[in-house]
Amino acid sequence: MDGVLQFILNSLSLGSVYALFALGLIMVFGILKLVNFAYGELIMVAGYTWFVLQGTLLPLVVVVLVAIVVAAFTSVVTERVAFRPVRSNSMNAMLITSFAVSTLLQNSALVFVSPRARAVDVPVFFHTNINLGGVQISVSNVVVILVSTLTLIGLLVLMQKTRLGITLRAAADDFRMLQLLGVRADQVIVSAFAISGVLAGIAGFLWISRIGSVSPTVGMAPLLIALIAIVVGGMNSLSGAIVGGFFLGTLTIALQLLLPQDMLAFRDAVIFAVVILVLVFRPQGIVKGRFATERIG
Amino acid sequence: MSLLELSNVHVRYGAITALKGLDLRVEQGELVALVGSNGAGKTTTLSAIAGVHKASTGSIVFDGKPIHAKRSADIARRGIALVPEDRGIFPSLTIEENLRLGSYLVRDKKTVADELDRVFDRFPILKERAGQGAGTLSGGEQQQLAIARALLSQPRLLMLDEPSLGLSPTLVDRMFEIIQQLHEEGVTILLVEQNVTRALALANRAYVLTTGSLTASGTPQEIMDSIDITAAYLGGVQVAGTEG
């Protein structure tokens, strides 16, 4: 029983971080049909903000909030400086631009900080356990599940109830029609990048507190996870990203548990094999969404 | 001064010239019909006015100011609303959310609420189903939603692209009734239709487009009188129009 609960908690914890990764990526994809390869670097930027600020006396909550703001700001700046000028060009131009931004940010970290990983001070209590009715639960799991649940609820309210959310969903449906109603494309796209950055910041904090260090390439794994999650979950809706994230998280934890010791090295290979299998039977992903598949920019 | 004036407008799609020097004007309060067969350039004309496709030469002047270089969002902000042929409904939004986006540009909350009430009076089906997904609506209901949404922006010029397309005969009647009502209430309308007879019955003036150029213009009577010149063409159109 203890093992089952532990498995559920671990899956929820990892899955919710993966879901946030995926949501941040699909936020921009839904509207521009652009897979933003610089997305992982927003997580890296959040991590380095944490690293830089940990020497100050600021409480962790403040540091994290600043890190989220910096990630969102970086996201908006990349849109304004790099993506907007090439938006009217081909999809390939956008894609290459996102690679360029990714490389540029990675190399900045490499030059200005260090090519090696730097440790961040994860609070000690993250690694302690609390006893809940005889079951040991790690504090980090609780923090992760709590923070991501709040983020998911916040995002849901934003997307469903606010004018901005309605506008963003409409843009994913039919961007051209939205502009015919007087909504400026730039505003919508900047908002999408900002939200993407906020999600990267929050997920980045959770991810980096998990691994305990930040390096120039720290964003590559999250980017890959997010990409696989949205492909397997369904690229045409936000719920697809969430489902894909939890699917991957649960699968990872399950394999970690079930695979024999000498097979653990092949865990990712097994994950990919399962993903391929899912796509064979459901090429559109687990959730069939409604976003327009055609890009209108 | 005309509300809208197109002079010598050309639109090209790659090697194809879809509009070859179109001159057209719409006066305040008028209902102007733009008729012609498939591929004549009617939709292109509306797209060019709305800024979806840019005119390669010529000028489009709205309320005394050139708009042909503006983006579609800015043209909409000046008071031109387009109800496109595909209706442009946002299927993953509810009907109410679709309508809220229609009043995106109207800042005053009181005005938005009042206009929404008027729209619900005019299209009761939308009120009944306000919370439903817009993707679940039938073709006729979607057309009503598209027009309602356009009206909520309080446009100074309403452009309708084939509003009767794909509707049942009863709904076609209803649609033309609505258009006539709007016209009588003072809304300036530029109407694109394949159903030439019905369009001409309502219009103050009309233009006939054939493969990118005007072949006739004037009052509906004048168009009807010149029908022998374009008989073959109009005949074909009427056959096509009755399918809807």
Give a structural overview.
Chain A is built from 10 helices and 4 strands, in the order ααααβββαααβααα. Chain A has a single domain (2-281), classed as ABC transporter involved in vitamin B12 uptake, BtuC. In chain A, a hairpin with a 2-residue loop joins strand 2 (129-132) and strand 3 (135-138). Helix content of chain A is 72%, strand content 4%. With 297 residues, chain A is mostly helical. The radius of gyration of chain A is 19 Å and the shape is globular. Chain A starts with a helix and ends in a 16-residue tail after the last helix. Chain B is α/β, with parallel strands linked by helices and 244 residues long. Chain B contains 10 helices and 10 strands. In chain B, the strands form 2 sheets. Chain B has a 6-stranded mixed beta sheet with strand order 6-7-8-3-9-10, sandwiched between helices. Residues 235-244 of chain B have low confidence and may be disordered. Chain B has a domain at 89-154. In chain B, strand 9 (205-210) and strand 10 form a beta hairpin. The radius of gyration of chain B is 17 Å and the shape is globular. Chain B has helices spanning 42-50, 72-77, 95-102, 109-122, 124-128, 139-152, 169-184, 196-202, 220-225, 231-242, and strands spanning 4-13, 16-26, 31-36, 57-62, 65-66, 80-83, 157-161, 189-193, 205-210, 213-218. In chain B, helix 3 packs parallel to helix 6. Chain A binds chain B through residues 163, 166-167, 169-170, 172-174, 176-185, 237, 290-291, and chain B through 50, 52, 71-74, 76-77, 81-82, 84, 88-93, 97-98, 100-102, 104-105, 135, 149, 153.
Write a compact overview of the structure shown.
Helix content of chain A is 72%, strand content 4%. Chain A is built from ten helices and four strands, in the order H-H-H-H-E-E-E-H-H-H-E-H-H-H.
Q: Structural class of the secondary elements of chain B?
A: alpha/beta
CATH architecture of chain A: Orthogonal Bundle
Uncertain segments of chain A are 293-297
Biggest interface, chains and residues, is: A-B, 21 and 27 residues
**Gyration radius of chain B, in Å:** 17 Å
Q: Give the number of helices of chain A.
A: 10
Whole-number tally of structural domains of chain A: 1
Q: How many strands, what sense, and barrel or not for the largest sheet of chain B?
A: 6 strands, mixed
Oligomer kind: heterodimer
Question: What is the strand arrangement across the widest sheet of chain B?
Answer: 6-7-8-3-9-10
Largest sheet of chain A: 2 strands, antiparallel
Briefly note the CATH topology name of chain A. Answer: ABC transporter involved in vitamin B12 uptake, BtuC
Mean pLDDT of chain A: 91
Termini gap of chain B: 36 Å
The CATH class of chain A is identified as: Mainly Alpha
